[in-house]
Amino acid sequence: MPYRRLPNTDNARIRALKTVIEKNETSYGPVAISFNVQKINIMLRNFESAQTRYKDSLEAQAAANRKFQKLIRNARLYISHFIQVLNFCVIRNEIKKEVKNLYGIDPDNFTVPDLLSNDTLLFWGKNIIKGEQTRLSQGGAPIYNPTIARVNVAFSQFKDAYVAQKTYQNTTTRQLESLSRLREDIDSVLISLWNQIEEAFSGLPPKERLEKCKEYGVVYYLRKEEKEKETAIE
Questions:
Q1: Mean pLDDT of the chain
Q2: Is the pLDDT of residue 53 over 70?
Q3: Model-level pTM?
Q4: Helix or strand or coil: residue 3?
Q5: How do residues 122-174 score in pLDDT, each as one tens digit?
Q6: β-bridge partners, 189
Q7: What's the half-sphere exposure (Cβ side, CA atoms, 13 Å) at 51?
Q8: Rounded Cα distance, 197 and 23, in Å
Q9: I need a labelling partner for 194 at 20 to 30 A (CA). Which of 2, 5, 49, 77 fits?
């Protein structure tokens, strides 16, 4: 005997509910099930709206993320390049190595810090800009190619996009949580409706009962051995 399974996609949930409503409205003779059509229609509209909001939010987040990735690469490039130039200035004795402390960099370390994550990029971007501004205020000569002003532009663009991306992510998470709660409500209603449908046709022979339930949107699946049996018969 095939087993019943709830829909596993949002569109399938919507189709299942609409099938029950449409079939119940067009059936002749005794109505198979009893339910509040207005309440179900409101639930459907809310669910479809939540689905649309989630999709729109996800698309907006993805579009913003594509731009964000470019800004990450740009900020990483400028910060990394600035640190390398700073190290070269120290190696050429143009800047005393102790000055590197202003940037939060070990005076004896001439490697570029890890800039792979957004958090490390935020950390070192702030340190480099603050350190260079402090050094310049103490009478130091500006570093060029890149200048700290250009580094600041690239870093600020990245930082603003980072905050915006967090907002997109939070919005998408809220929309998904709302959609998930509605999924639970839809599934609960479908279980109740499908139970009524199966009960309404319980007096029919198994095969006829199965077909009638399917007409009302109840979804059945064959087990592996049942599929093999049907294939063998064919």
A1: 91
A2: yes
A3: 0.78
A4: strand
A5: 999 999 999 999 999 999 999 999 999 999 999 999 999 999 999 999 999 99
A6: none
A7: 15
A8: 11
A9: 49
Give me 220's structure tokens: 């059945």
C-alpha dist (Å) from residue 170 to 135, 143, 163, 173, 181: 39, 39, 11, 5, 17
Look at residue 4 and give its three-state secondary structure: strand
Mean pLDDT of 67-88: 98
Residue-level length of the chain? 234
Residue with tokens 């990394």: 80
Please tell me the distance from the alpha carbon of residue 155 to that of residue 118, in angstroms, as a whole number. 11
* 3-class secondary structure, 220: strand
Take residue 211 and report the two structure tokens written for it. 């077909």
| pLDDT for position 37 | 84
Report the C-alpha gap between 97 and 53 in whole angstroms. 54
The pLDDT of residue 57: 97
Alpha carbon distance 113, 121 (integer Å): 9
CA dihedral sign of residues 49, 51, 54, 59: negative
Rounded Cα distance between 52 and 47, Å, is: 9
In this structure, is the dihedral angle defined by the CA atoms of residues 51, 53, 54 and 58, taken in order, positive or negative? positive
pLDDT tens-place string over residues 18-43: 998 888 777 655 556 778 888 899 99
Q: Which residues contact 83 (CB under 8 A, 6 or more apart)?
A: 103, 105, 112, 113, 124, 128
As a whole number of angstroms, the distance between CA 112 and CA 82 comes to 10
* Residue found by looking up tokens 């967090």 in the block: 166
